[in-house]
Amino acid sequence: MSVPDYMQCAEDHQTVLVVVQPVGIVPEDQFFRIYKRIASVAQVSIRDSQRNLYIRYRHHYLPENNEWGDFQTHRKVVGLISVTTCGSAKEWPQTLDRFHGQKEVFGATLYDSRLLVFGLQGEIAEQQRTDVAFYSSYDDCPNVEKRVEDFVESIFIVLESKRLDRATDKSGDKIPLLCVPFEKKDFVGLDTDSRHYKKRCQGRMRKHVGDLCLQAGMLQDALVHYHMAVELLRSVNDFLWLGAALEGLCSASVIFHYPGGTAGGAAGRKPSLAQGQGQAADAGKRHRPGAQEVLIDPGALTANGISADTSSEIGRAKNCLGPEDIIEKYKEAISYYGKYKNAGVIELEACVKAVRVLAIQKRAMEASEFLQNAVYINLGQLSEEEKIQRYSILSELYHLIGFHRKSAFFKRVAAMQCVAPTIPEPGWRACYKLLLETLPGYSLSLDPKDFSKGTHRGWAAVQMRLLHELVYASRRMGNPGLSVRHLSFLLQTMLDFLSDQEKKEVTQSLENYTSKCPGGMEVLTLPDGLKLPPVAFTKLPIIRSVKLLDLPVSLRPHKQKGLLENNMSTKSPFIYSPIIMHTRGEERNKNIEFQWVQGEVCEVQLMVYNPMPFELRVEHMGLLTSGVEFEALPAALFLPAESGLYPVTLVGVPRTAGNITVTGYHTSVFGVTSDCLLEGLPSVITSGCMVEVIPSLPRLQLSTSLPRSAHPLQPSKEELSSSVSVQLFNGETQHLTITLENIGSEDLETLEVASKTCNTKEKLFGEFLSWDLEEAVSQLPLKPGQSVTLTVNIKVRLDFSGGENLLQDLNDDGISVTGLPISSPLRQVLKPRAETKPLGSESSKTDYNHVKLSSDTTFISQFLKLHVANNKIKNAITTIYITTPDKTHYTYRIYTGARISFLIPVCCPPTRHCKYEAVHSISRLVKLLKNRVEDDVQAAQRLSADEVVLTV
């Protein structure tokens, strides 16, 4: 016997073997359809008996294995069911001859046979025959199972008769010597009259009867005969058959202790004991570990077909082995098998059976010892197919006991055997399929999401080797798409474990594959139904942060509100609750405060990093969004080797209004297109992903007739300013022409103009700006490309009688026109220029902004020389405030121009007259100011002031 049956288990010893084979030409699908129905009859309850007969079906069985039927009766083919298709009566004789020829192959051991004929009709089909069943078609055969049950019962009758014949054989010295095929030549010339020879014959026959009892459903009797056979065979050192007797004893004990079987079948097998009383007595002990030794009543054996004369040999033998003893006896039997080179198959199958028992007992380490022994059993010259089967079964058994990595190892060996150099046509598809089955054993999954859940699991070097083998196998299969997918997966998940040289080699191979078959994000479905998820290159490049950018100032939208709305209360009737804000924290983090505008180019900034040791070329990189229609404008990147954080700005244009969410980005690297979603990148820092897109707004371009100011203002973040300058004297008027052009795509329907002053401590008296909007409004709506002109009159009118503060901003350029935050409707703001502070820290290290003065005015002169005589104070304004303790205020404003200076008493004491005095030199200015300050300080002293405060 050269081919082992790796699917055997201990309970197979109680089954009878039936071969089901086609005769002639039978469609394969139809044959296996009938075979499945036949195999469903795996257990038959014998009528008029409490026993069950178990059947094991095979559709292919080597006749040479049948020669070992005397050694172990479950290896003997006792039944044959042939399936044939016969279309006419002319074909019937030939079909019948083929059936008889098939019976002759197993004729020496067959108990009974049946022929199932499909398609034949007529007189022949109407004949009543026990060995032939006729059916009109494969679809019209309702009683196939019933025919098989009758066939099994006929087998049982023959089996029972043989058991009785062998058990009641009283021929004494004439007991035949049972032997295996390779022993026949060894017994030629032996003395058949010796006591040693007779014991050998008796021991082997006892073992054989034990097999028949086990098949016939008489478990207790089988145990007795096995014990007797062990004693007889041990006495004559018949090691091969002693091993078989021990294995039979183990099998019977396994059937008793584990009714559910050891093969993992869904339907459990229940032992059938011959005696009803014995069955009831042992039912309570069947599942108890203590039920290991049951004594047999010798008087009960006669009813079961065993002669009463044998009772003296039995004595008080042990009936059943315990779980621990089963394994010890298996080890002993295997050691005996190992003494015979030609018993390698028997030894290997015994190891497999023991492993299945140990798997149920959850004794994984002992099971691995049996498997390790099975690996080194020499079975001679095995074909490549037999080697593949052997390694695959070893893999399954290691998996059964929980040795997943060892299981994956043997599965991979089987895969490599499929493409061995000695095979003329390597089976690359089988190799690829087996390699896929090894993935779980190496903690490897083909889903990239499993590698983003924390630390790396498994052995990276082994995983990379396995992925390379998958790439090569898929290429030899002629499927470059699979090669691209596996290489992409390798590069994405194993990037941290690749050396610089390996990174270059893998990327070069990937580019070669993608030149023929570009990689995408589609799910690949294999012929066996396995689906390979897409692989996104989230590490090429690595993204560290994502930030949505506001529009440029000139494009930012502003909410429309009237001029009076600035003074409205902003109080809300709703109560602030920190709990509510906490529960909505996630939503707050995802929303952006600013808005994007439909039709305008919007930007998202990414901080990227190139982990590769060479320049990374990203051919296309764009945004992925949801919510509104968005046109992403792809960019091409060239990132230096190991660049560190590198800012990249991706742009796009929203085409509709609504809420838009940036869900990720897409790239094209090495010919592989990837869609990278932010939700799958927990390490990416983002300040928000959702932003509101408002409808398109008008856009205006402003130009004026006045020259631009040399000192532009610093507007607020919400304002867009255009600064112009004009020099005016009090009472003088200047016309400012403002041209507004619609450069957008929307009509301008409303125009508003407003003026506003800076927020300073002084109050402004007098109106400087005036305009007429009637002519400009009459030209509305303003179409795209059209323009409108607005004239603003600037007239300086200073009112010195209204309060203690006058004009806050006055310089050599006059009034500054600033503003114009533009929205729809247009709102223009013309305001005075912000106050410029001329006294910088560069000219003096001492802060003289607030100085306390006594009646001594010498300090005042030095103070004025220091600040006024300095060249840096030219083209600026210095304001002097004198405040007495009784809250009397004296304010002087010094304006120093390029050629002339003015000393302006903004608010004088009641006894003086306010006037302008022109001073053409710094010394004259200092002297004049000194005199005035001294006079005013003296006046303050006359008011009984202890001190005054001078603030510049």
Automatic annotation (TrEMBL):
Subcellular location: Golgi apparatus
Ranges for region Disordered: 267-288
Keywords, ordered alphabetically: Golgi apparatus
Main location (coarse class): Golgi
Domain Trs120/TRAPPC9 first Ig-like, chain residue ranges per copy: 543-671
InterPro entries: Ig_TRAPPC9_Trs120_1st, TPR_TRAPPC9_Trs120, Trs120_TRAPPC9, Trs120_TRAPPC9_N
Superkingdom per UniProt: Eukaryota
GO cellular component assignments: trans-Golgi network
Location of the Trs120/TRAPPC9 N-terminal domain: 186-259
Residue ranges of domain Trs120/TRAPPC9 TPR region in the record: 365-512
Family: Belongs to the NIBP family.
PANTHER family linked to this entry: TRAFFICKING PROTEIN PARTICLE COMPLEX SUBUNIT 9 (PTHR21512:SF5)
Protein name, per record: Trafficking protein particle complex subunit 9
